[in-house]
Structures are given as C-alpha cells and as structure tokens.
Amino acid sequence: MILDQYGRPLEEAMPAMPAAGQFVIAEPDYDRRARDVSYDLTPADVDRILRIANTGDCREQSELALELGEKNWEILHNLETRRNALLGCGFDIRPGDDSDAAKYAADGFRKALEAVDFYELREHLMKVLLPGFAVAEIIWKPGGRLGGFGLLEQPAFTFRNSLEPLLVTRDNSRGIPLARGKYLTHYYRPNRTDPARGGLIRPLAWMSVMHSLPLKDALSFTERYGMPFVVAKVDGTTGESERRKLIRLIRNFGPNGGGVISRSAELELVSSGDSTGMVYFRLLSYLAAGIAKLLLGQTASSGDSSGLSKGDAQSQVRQDIMQADGRRLDATLNSQLSRLWTTFNRGADVPAPEIHHETESPEDDAADAAVLATLYNAGFEADPEEVSKRFGYTLRRREPSQPAAYPGFAFASAPRAAAAPPPKPKPAAPGAKRWVGPVERLIEQAVDAAEKDDDSFDRLLRRLGDADMLDEFDTEAAGEMVEERMLTGLVDGAIREGRRVAAQREERK
Predict the structure, then answer these.
(1) What is the pLDDT of residues 94-151, one digit of tens each?
(2) CA distance 23 to 25
C-alpha cells in the first residue's frame, strides 16, 4: 500500500489479485432458523418491516421478498416471466476493440465462462427485482483463473450505516465489508438511490397482503353458499345418545356444514345483497392486474394478442423493460467480472471483452435493415464490421458485379456471381467522325513514324501542337450532331409524358 503526504492510501492502478478459494460457506442449520416473516402477514406487519428497513437493516425485508413468491402465485408467475424473458435471450461476448489483443482476450473470456455455470450466476443476479440487490462471490483460482461463483441470499446482508452491502456472520451481527474484487453486486433501484429501499418489494408487500384479504373472504363465501347445510330438528323428548348419533351422521357428510337444533328453535342465515360473490373476484382480478403491471409493464397474456404482447410469449414483458434489464445486467458483469478477469489474465492495458444480451426485437432489426437500404440507395455504405456486430451475421463487402440479398453487403457463404461481358462500343456518329477525323489521322501517322524511327515522328508531334490545327476541325458538323441529339431527346420525353398523363386519365374513368 502506497500513502500520500497526508498518510492516505493512494488508489492502485491495478487491483491486487484476490485470494483464491471460496470465502463464504453457508451453514444450513444456522441459516434456516430465521422465522417466517410472512406468516399471517397483516398491514401492521408490513409497516413494521418497512420502517426497520428504512434504518438500513433490511434483513426482514429481504426475507419477505423471498417468501412472497412462495405464498402468492400471482407474484411468482409474473416474476418468473420477467426473469425468464431475459434469461431466454442469447448473449455474445464482443472484443473491446479491433486489436488482436482484444480479440484474444474475448476468446479466452468466452472459454472461461463456458467452464463454469454462468447461467446460474445470471439467474441469481436476476433475483434482484424484489429485494433491490443481489450478491455473488467470485471464486478465483490461483493465477486469476475463474473457478465459479458462490450465490448468497439477500437476508445475509445489511446496509446499516453503509451504502454497500455488509455481510452478516455468526460472529459479527453488524456486518463486515466485502473484499474488493471478490464479489459481484447487482442493484435495481427504480425509485430510491438508497439500496435498502430499492427493488419492488415495497409496493408488492402491500399488494400481497391486500390480495390475501379478499381471497380469504372469497373462500368463506364459497364455503357458505357453495356447500349444502344440513339441519336436523329434534323435539325435547329426544335422548342424548340419539342426538350424538345425529351429530355423527351429519359429520359423515364431510366438509359440508350441519347442525342439530330442537324443533322449537329457529335459525336464520342473513346474506348480503350479492349472492354471487363477484365483488370478491373482481377485487382479486384488479389486484392481480396491478401485480402484472408492476412486474411486466402490461397485463396482456401470451394468449391474448390484442395487448402489447402481440400473442408472443417472449413479449409478455414490455420490450423496453426487458432491454433495460439486459443493459443493467451487462453493465454489472462487464465492470465487475470481465474487467477483473482481463486485468488478471491479459493485462490492465488490454480492452476488456463486453457481454451483451441480445434483447433487440425482430422489428428493430427490420427497421435497421430498411435504414441501411435507404442509405445505400442514397449513395452511402455502412461499415461491414459494425453491421455484423449489430445483426450477429458475418458480413463482407460485396464485389460491384456480385448481387447481394442486402444492399451493399453479402453473406460470407454467398456464391460469387459470374462477371458480365463488357458492352460493345457504339459506332461513332458521322458528325463526331468528321470532327476528330484530322487528329485521328495524324495520330495514326505518328504511330507509324515511331515504328519506322525516322524524323517524320518529330514533325507530326509539332504538327499536333500547332494552333492552326484547330482550323481543320469540322465544328459545324459536330454542332449539328449535338443539336439533333437534344431535339430527339426532347421529343422522346414529351411522347412519354403524354402517354403517362393519358394512362392516369384512363384510370380515373
């Protein structure tokens, strides 16, 4: 460590190599002792949990974020849809620039990720949506080689007196800072910059507890009005043993209700004005639609092509939301994993590879292709390497005589078209022949004189440079030729324009 004149540590130009191995080891027996914070959840419980998280101690809030998916199928379904929308997209690893060193680093980084469970890491980091942060340990091998990842759940961290996650251990309940270059930290803060108050857990916690209340009422309503209620009326002379037999008989009906009363007693079931219970189911549908909008950005399902989903299951998540999730995940992986791996394995001066999730829609590709075609027709050509990176195809610039499926480019595997024979020269017009005839004859004489190697060659050259030579040009014949061609073109254009106007008039009739 190097210190400045004030004793403060200077920032290192190259981060130190982190220690090899896995630091955080889970203790299942100890970690599973946490109580179920979502058990019999009430609005008062939600308020208490969120107030504690406002102080930075977000462990109960993180635990609630994990448990909501276990008890609310609407949240779990929409949450998995949003996660899988991004995880189902492909991704590629691009070199940092066009240098050979960057391409070599990208190839090595790709092989390093193929040797570990990179999908599991991406899946774990996408659990950031509810708690607002996700942490994974990078397991380095000796020499800076990548050995895997340790996945850490959010309840193991706190933000008390810190804006960075602190790891809570058995020996330190206030948390310890994470080692530099050893952990990946992925954030999702849609509303507040404070990570302890990030994620979607806060609105979803309220929606979940409100969803459970009408659900319980709907179940009670169904049990009351959807099942038969058996009543056995007896008089005062009926003995106790016979009453017990009647009670056992009623219980044999299973979940159906029942009761034993005397003939002199009277029961009355007071019902609400709505005997169908639709008020409960409408409220449940309203809350379910709200959960879908919060997580997916829309309510249209894969079977309803009238909404933003367009009938495509991949498009259940709004396109801009999926692209934002992809860019956010790319930024975390590139800055906290790709940059470190490149520094340790290829050097700090080598451009780091870039991980890119392919979240672009086919409509965007079609629009870009149309723009390229328009620019090509206007006289512009795009760079083949840039277009290859955008579309994911290997492209090269086509030959002038080679047709291509896309304007200006051809696939590397496209067959080369046969070259067309050069066109035959058109015979010169009589006026042009008379105009350049004298010069042509002098040039032919000069060539013959050069072959004979006599003095006539020098005389011909002087003759060609003489100003009086211009008098021998028949300019009148040349002017007549130009005038004839201009008049012919004007007449031909007038005839075509007249035919076009006549055709339009016929179409209007």
Answers:
(1) 999 999 999 999 999 999 999 999 999 999 999 999 999 999 999 999 988 999 999 9
(2) 6
Specify the long-range contacts of residues 278-283, CB closer than 8 Å, at least 24 apart: 280/214, 280/215, 280/217, 280/218, 280/221, 281/218, 283/214
In angstroms, the CA 458 to CA 456 distance is: 6
3-state secondary structure 28-78: HHHHCCCCCCCCCCCHHHHHHHHHHHCCCCCHHHHHHHHHHHHHCHHHHHH
Between CA 191 and CA 384 the distance in angstroms is: 41
How far is 293 from 277, CA to CA, in rounded Å?
25
∠ CA 143-147-148, nearest 5°, is 150
Residue-wise pLDDT for 396-447, tens only, equals 666 655 554 444 444 444 444 455 555 555 555 555 555 566 666 666 666 6
Indicate yes or no: pTM above 0.85: no
Instruction: Look at residues 211, 197, 201 and name the one whose alpha carbon lies nearest to residue 41.
Output: 211
Question: What does the chain come to in residues?
Answer: 509
Cα separations in angstroms, 309 against 194, 298, 364, 474: 33, 8, 16, 76
H or E segment at 262?
A: strand 257-262
Exposed, middle or buried by CB within 10 Å (0-12, 13-18, 19+), for 89? middle
* All residues at 6 or more sequence positions from 403 whose CB lies less than 8 Å from its CB, including other chains: 417
Interatomic CA distance for residues 457 and 459, integer angstroms: 5
Neighbours of 294 (CB within 10 A): 15
**How many CA atoms lie less than 13 Å away from 252 in the CB half-sphere?**
6
Task: Characterize the bridge pairing of strands 157-158 and 257-262.
Answer: unpaired
Which element (helix H / strand E) includes 379?
none
